Amino acid sequence: MTKPIEGFSKLTKAEKLDWITANFTDNPEAAKEVLRRYWHPDKKVQHLHDEFIENTLTNYYLPFGISPNFLINDTLYAIPMAIEESSVIAAASKAAKFWLTRGGFKATVIGTEKIGQVHLMYSGNKERLKNFFEEIQPRLYADAASITKNMEKRGGGITAIALRDKTNILENYYQLHCTFETLDAMGANFINSCLEQFAATLKDGAQQYSTFTETEKNLEVVMAILSNYVPNCLVRAEVSCPIDQLNVGEKISSEDFAKKMVRAVEIAKVEPHRAVTHNKGIMNGIDAVILATGNDFRAVEAGIHAYAAKDGQYSSLTHAEVENGIFRFWIEVPLALGTVGGLTSLHPLVKLALEILGKPSAETLMQIVAVAGLAQNFAALRSLVTTGIQEGHMKMHLLNILNQLGATEDEKVTLTEHFKKNAATHSAVVTAFKKLRTS
Ligand code: MEV
């Protein structure tokens, strides 16, 4: 059995490759070859990648594609997307084209409030804690001034610090619930630095607060950390058109199509099993843009799913209605994004993705990302309530299957032609491939 290793992080990259392949792969030379093949030929770029994370062995590539023809608030965008799943870009592009001739997407940022919390345990007198907080508040801002100075110059900073009594949910539990405006930065480092300073000021201030008893002076700071649940960092994106313009041309009348779309959303609103898949489709669009633009998809995922459950049951992120002959379809999602800082100026592809999007502000990026999610959901529901998704999906998936089977370029051309007229299920592709090989 392989023994644990001491000091792995201090090994050179070559030594790391030797160790991992010798101990955890069947064919170390072949494994090393795979790892090396994905090194970037430009040493500078590779060095950048090496330093993004710890113990880098190689790079993990995802396809980076473009979904064109998105008309958002009267500006035309081609949206970069990084994703491994076939059909997502095709679906987004189809939805973009559909809405291009129907007024495009309208998007509005509803709020940009970021949140961070200092979590406290305090078993003393509540009134004295409240008074202490009132007195220490100006010092919380003052002690963080060196951190907030630049952000304030640009118009951002700490917007509020509140003491919250949470003892009804956990004995002795209080919070400093803090809100921030971080402008074009996602702001995680800024927020966490402020919060850690608040924690230090709080501890020090409590020690010196003569009204406190000795026990109260030792109030416990458990942790200080931003929250990825940002329900007031919210964006709305919408499409609408008269029902008679909803001609999707798939053997269904515009009226029936509108009704079915509304039904599909209603089901996702009330049925968590469907809601999760419905929202997963939305995240296909959202995550792909988040990744391409170097944002933190884990933060966005966690925050969005919490938002989807905010009323007590996991539910649809999109909404649909037909009113006075108008079909309206919209999404509201919390998105804490950045277009400066983090990877945005470091990763060459992220920089390029932002350039393709016209170097957007964080607010514009919020709008673009929400639109990508809405477009994805529109495309998915459109397929689901008309032809079903397998028809389009399997055709897109065909190339993946053929690549897995090791098909040559000629075989791919022949089989792609064949599956224009036949259902491209996995087993049908395998059978046709074998038949072609043996013929
Ligand atoms: C597949 O990645 C996403 C869908 O399942 C979304 C949906 O069902 O709405 C097609």
Quick tags:
439 residues; alpha+beta; 3-hydroxy-3-methylglutaryl-coenzyme A Reductase, Chain A, domain 2; Alpha-Beta Plaits; 4-stranded antiparallel β-sheet; 10 strands; 51% helix; hydroxymethylglutaryl-CoA reductase (NADH) activity; hydroxymethylglutaryl-CoA reductase (NADPH) activity; HMG_CoA_Rdtase_sub-bd_dom_sf; oxidoreductase; HMG_CoA_Rdtase_NAD(P)-bd_sf
Can you describe what's shown?
The longest helix has 24 residues, at 362-385. By secondary structure, the chain is of the alpha+beta class. It has 4 domains: 8-50, no CATH class; 67-110 and 234-387, 3-hydroxy-3-methylglutaryl-coenzyme A Reductase, Chain A, domain 2 (Alpha-Beta Complex), CATH 3.90.770; 114-227, Hydroxymethylglutaryl-CoA reductase, class I/II, NAD/NADP-binding domain (Alpha-Beta Plaits, 2-Layer Sandwich), CATH 3.30.70.420; 392-438, no CATH class. The two termini are 48 Å apart. It has a 4-stranded antiparallel beta sheet with strand order 3-8-10-9. It contains 16 helices and 10 strands. The chain has helices at 13-24, 28-37, 43-52, 88-100, 126-143, 145-153, 188-208, 214-217, 254-270, 272-292, 297-308, 348-356, 362-385, 390-405, 409-421, 426-438, and strands at 64-72, 75-82, 106-109, 114-121, 157-165, 173-181, 220-227, 234-242, 318-323, 326-334. The chain is globular. Bound molecules: (R)-mevalonate (MEV). The site of (R)-mevalonate (MEV) has 9 residues, from helix 10 and helix 13.
